[in-house]
Amino acid sequence: MKPIIKRKLLWLAAGLLLLLAIALDNRLLIQHYSVEAAAISQPVRLCLLTDLHSCRYGENEQQLVEAIEAEQPDILLLVGDIFDDKIPDANTAALLQAVAGQYPCYYVTGNHEYWAGPAAFAAKMQILIDCNVRRLAGAVDTITINGQTLNIGGVDDPDLYRIADGASQSDGLAEFEAQLAQVRQAAQNGNCTILLAHRPEYFSLYARQGFDLALCGHAHGGQWRVPGLLNGVYAPGQGFWPKYAGGVYQQAACTMLVSRGLARESTRIPRLFNRPELVIIDLT
C-alpha cells in the first residue's frame, strides 16, 4: 500500500473514531432556558430533573449533586422516572437525601415507577416521604420564592390507571384529564402556574387547560439525534420522528419544556449525539 493512501486511511479511521466518541458522549450536559412569565417580576430559577432511572453519577450521585448546587436553583422539580423498575433505588435515594434538605422539591410519577409493581412502588414513594419530597398527584402547592408566588401543580402518569397488578385496566386518559382539570381548578388564583407532567405527547391537553408552563420528560431526547437536522429518532408514546423529543414548544399561551433526561446505563440502545441533561430554567 502506498504511504499516501495509508495516511489517508489512518486519518479516516481517526476521524470516524472521533465522530463515534462524540456521538456516544454521555457526560452530563447543563442545559439553560429562559422563559418569560407574565406574573413574575423577579427571576426565579427552576431545576428540572427527569428520567434518571436510578442511573449512577458517581459515588452517592456526587457529580449530579454538585452540578445542581453549582447552578443555585430556587426549587427542584422532578418529573417522573427518577426511579426505575429494574435498577435498585439506591442511587435515587442518595440523590434525594443530598438535595431535598437544600431546596423545595416536588415530584410527579412516571411510568417506570408503576411498572415496578405495587410493593416496589410503595417503597419508592416511602423514599419520597422520608426525604421530605412533595409528591403532586392532581394537586397544587402555592409557594413563594424570591417574593414571587407560583402555583406548582402535578399529575400522575396515566400508567397509574393502565396498570393494576400487571394487568391493563384502562387507557387512563379519562382519569388523566380529570387530574389535569383538578389542577387547573385549584390554580385559579392569578399566579403563574407550572404543571409537572411526565409525558410531552399530551401537550394539547396542557395547552387546552391554559397552564403557563408545562415541564415534561419521558422522550429521552428521541434516543438518537442528528444535530441541526433531526431532533430525535424514536420516543415512547410518540413513535418514530417524535414531535416533542426535547426543547421548548409553544401552543396558544402555554409553553412546554421537554428535558432529554438523565438516563445513561439503563437505556437498552445507546444515546447518540444526545447527552443526558440537567435542565435549568430561569423564569423572568
Would you summarize the structure shown here?
The chain has 284 residues and is an alpha/beta fold. The chain contains eight helices and 16 strands.
Main CATH class: Alpha Beta
- The fourth-level CATH homologous superfamily is Metallo-dependent phosphatases
How much of the sequence is in beta strands? 25-35%
- Helical content stands at 25-40%
Number of helices: 8
Q: What number of structural domains do the residues give?
A: 1
Which architecture name does CATH use? 4-Layer Sandwich
Distance between the termini: 63 Å
Can you put this structure into words, describing what you see?
With 284 residues, this protein is α/β, with parallel strands linked by helices. It has one domain (28-283): Purple Acid Phosphatase, chain A, domain 2 (4-Layer Sandwich), CATH 3.60.21. The chain is 30% helix and 25% strand. The protein contains eight helices and 16 strands. It has helices at residues 3-23, 62-71, 90-99, 111-115, 118-130, 159-162, 173-186, 203-209; strands at 29-35, 44-49, 75-79, 105-108, 134-135, 139-145, 148-154, 163-164, 167-168, 192-196, 213-216, 234-235, 239-240, 247-251, 254-258, 277-283. A six-stranded mixed sheet has the order 1-16-2-3-4-5, covered by helices on one side. It has a six-stranded mixed sheet with strand order 6-7-10-11-15-14. A two-stranded antiparallel sheet has the order 8-9. The model has no long low-confidence stretch (mean pLDDT 90).
